[in-house]
Design a protein that fits this description.
6-stranded parallel sheet, 13 strands, 18 helices, alpha/beta, 542 residues, 11% strand
């Protein structure tokens, strides 16, 4: 078996690799480390999860230690597209170089630059950076690249997709002409090929696997599921899989927050990570996920590349990506460095074209996962047709038109419906009548309009109930406890004494009303008559 000692790596670095759990080099490490140690330029085409970081970081550390140089100056620059990838590479470099004198620093945007500037001023042999923050610090005169001996451009195709190429080209102009350049990319479009030709001099070319092909050891599955049932299926799958970590991908930021919120309500601890989160929130979420404090990490495609999570067992595509290559990078988070993994995708009706594009790209059909919910069988199309809403006016109800109806049949049905409406209006129209009768009708209409609000109020309640969506608790078992997050779970009741007092008051009030109503009208008249007579006498005497 091939091992790292055969690659002429120093003992101090070998010790650090053993402590990090590295036993045997991956194919890209076997092919990339020797030419990099020789000082040659390198063009590497390899998918994520194949061990690229170790392939360029280990030989760079060894060369910097052997050659020496001005202490504190940046001698190796590693450019990455995302903050997460920059932080990941920094952690790996620190691990590989822990028994050497080589130092490293990382800079990226989204956080305060003060601690990053302090790290640079203390001195760093290797600088890992994102293009935006590096260009900013170069403009401030804090970072100088005049002593760079080795330049690494990682995830070049991702740089291109995210629009970083102008910044990258500006930064390259400040690098020394005499340097070693390493370029890594999962795909090689024309722009990447042109950049490689301008940067690299007689490079060693390595291509481990065909571009945008998933790792064979990843078990792929797909569920054809209705969009409304994805959330429930996701929680069930996570519980049934019984794994310590699950990475879930969504297309949008709001979708990631919503999925994480639903999982937490279902009793599954989850956090979301996307571009709207602050850098501290993202770092905390990643750290908690790696430490297994959080069972599920819900991410957008910002985390589809460069996030190295050791032995990640399960990746779930809650929503399929609209770019087929993104699917490969997503599922590449599992099955890394030759390990096995599982990737499960949810596909609703609107995502069927995405699924076909993905299968075309990877060159095979993704197998269906067991019993697929709501899959259409032969002759079952009508089962999924929307049920027409009931309308109050049944006389003008639209005639049913099937999906296979011709244009003429549809037009005829519309004409019949229009004629029925006109007929209904004519029969409802009032006939000419006498003026007196007409005035009576006007008064009746006015009374009807005045009474209409009351009628609407009394009839509105049942109609609102019918139009309301299905019972949200329908999925619960009969005796299963229900929790409504929007309603406090407290019951307020009167004490027995207070209830008795209120009951006595009500009974006394009702008794007084009954007694007053039962008094004969004659008594009321007798009491009222003398008073009236006395008033009249006083008036006459005056």
């Amino acid at each position: 078996m091939f091992n790292f000692s055969e690659l002429k790596i120093e003992k101090s670095i070998l010790k650090a690799l053993r402590e990090a759990g590295y036993e045997q080099p991956t194919p890209i490490q076997q092919q990339a480390i020797p030419p990099v140690l020789e000082g040659r330029d390198l063009m590497g085409c390899a998918q994520t999860g194949t061990g690229k970081t170790c392939a360029f970081a280990v030989p760079i550390i060894q060369r910097l230690c052997e050659e020496g140089g001005k202490p504190g100056a940046v001698r190796a620059l590693i450019l990455t597209p995302t903050r997460e990838l920059a932080l990941q590479i920094y952690e790996n470099v620190c691990q590989y170089a822990r028994y050497t004198k080589c130092t490293a620093a990382v800079i990226f945007g989204g956080v305060s630059q003060v601690p990053q500037v302090d790290a640079i001023r203390r001195g760093a042999d290797i600088l890992i950076a994102t293009p935006g923050r590096l260009w900013d610090l170069m403009g401030q005169g804090i970072v100088k690249l005049g002593k760079v001996e080795c330049f690494v451009l990682d995830e070049a195709d991702r740089m291109l997709d995210m629009g970083f190429f102008p910044d990258v080209k500006r930064i390259i102009k400040y690098l020394p002409e005499k340097r070693q350049t390493l370029l890594f990319s999962a795909t090689i479009p024309q722009e990447i090929a042109a950049l490689a030709n301008s940067l690299l001099k007689d490079p060693a070319r390595i291509s481990i696997t065909p571009s945008a092909k998933p790792v064979e050891k990843i078990e792929q599955k797909v569920f054809l599921v209705e969009k409304a049932e994805k959330r429930e299926l996701l929680a069930d799958l996570i519980r049934q899989s019984n794994v310590h970590q699950t990475l879930v991908f969504t297309r949008t930021k709001h979708g990631a927050d919503r999925v994480a919120r639903d999982l937490n309500r279902a009793g599954i601890k989850a956090k979301a990570i996307h571009g709207d989160k602050s850098q501290n929130q993202r770092q905390t979420a990643l750290a908690d996920f790696k430490a297994c404090k959080v069972a599920v990490l819900v991410a957008t495609d910002i985390a589809a590349r460069g996030i190295d999570i050791n032995e990640l067992p399960l990746v779930i595509n809650f929503e399929l990506p609209n770019i087929p290559e993104t699917y490969v990078h997503r599922i590449g988070r599992t099955g890394r460095a030759g390990q096995e993994g599982t990737a499960i995708s949810f596909c609703d009706r609107t995502e069927r074209p995405y699924l076909r594009d993905i299968e075309k790209l990877i060159g095979k059909k993704i197998p269906l996962a067991g019993e697929v919910p709501h899959i259409e069988a032969a002759g079952e199309e009508k089962k999924h047709e929307p049920v027409p809403r009931k309308t109050a006016n049944t006389r003008t109800r639209r005639a049913p038109v099937s999906e296979k109806s011709t244009a003429q049949e549809v037009a005829d049905a519309a004409a019949r419906e229009k004629a029925a409406k006109q007929k209904a209006r004519k029969t409802a129209a009032p006939k000419p009548q006498a003026k007196a009768v007409r005035s009576v009708e006007v008064k009746q209409e006015q009374r009807a309009k005045a009474a209409a609000p009351r009628a609407r109020r009394t009839s509105a309640a049942p109609s609102r109930g019918r139009s309301r969506r299905n019972d949200p608790y329908a999925r619960f078992e009969k005796n299963e406890p229900r929790v409504d997050a929007h309603t406090p779970s407290r019951a307020h009741a009167l004490s027995e004494e207070a209830a008795a007092r209120i009951r006595k008051k009500v009974e006394a009030t009702l008794a007084a009303r009954t007694a007053k109503a039962s008094q004969p009208a004659a008594q009321t008249e007798k009491k009222a008559t003398p008073a009236r007579r006395g008033v009249s006498r006083r008036r006459t005497s005056k």
